[in-house]
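Allow me, if you will, to draw on your knowledge of protein folds for a short while. The matter concerns a single protein, recorded as an amino acid sequence and a row of backbone structure tokens. Could you please explain, in whatever detail you think fit, how the structure tokens follow from the sequence? I remain grateful for any guidance, and I place the record below:

…
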Amino acid sequence: MLAAVRAKAEVLPPQIAGDLIQSMVQSEAFAGWFAAPRGVWPLARITTEDAAALGARTTIADLSAETARKQALVHGDLTAADYAMAQTVVDHATRRIQDTPQSLIYLLIEPGSQGHVLVVKATRSGEGLFVTSFRRLSRDAARRDRELNRLLGKALP
């Protein structure tokens, strides 16, 4: 089923593809997958321009089971429901930082809220695109500012 959704999302207009993926991430099926991840789950659709900048031949970024498990350990405060924000972070990113030729950091910084960070990385072959990190920014202004400065300093020249 996921392979069919992914294939369909690749050919749909960008907004519709993003909405389709976001609705799948908001589903009970994703919550079940997230509780016991296996394989990959399509998490967000990036723009064709962003994909090209990464050397990717796909616009669909998957969350791997390995990354989902790592995220649960490192960012255990995030629930399956929080991942529905992934597409919003991509679509409304305040900043996009290309920190390596194959990875892009999306920052969504909203006044009065925590904000989010989502990192997408292309495989060397360009065939795959993966979300390697997703997290909230700190509510503490000083900690958030330090994290933002660290991320902004990663931009390629």
About this structure: The chain has one domain: 2-152. The two ends are 41 Å apart (CA to CA). Residues 2-152 form one domain.
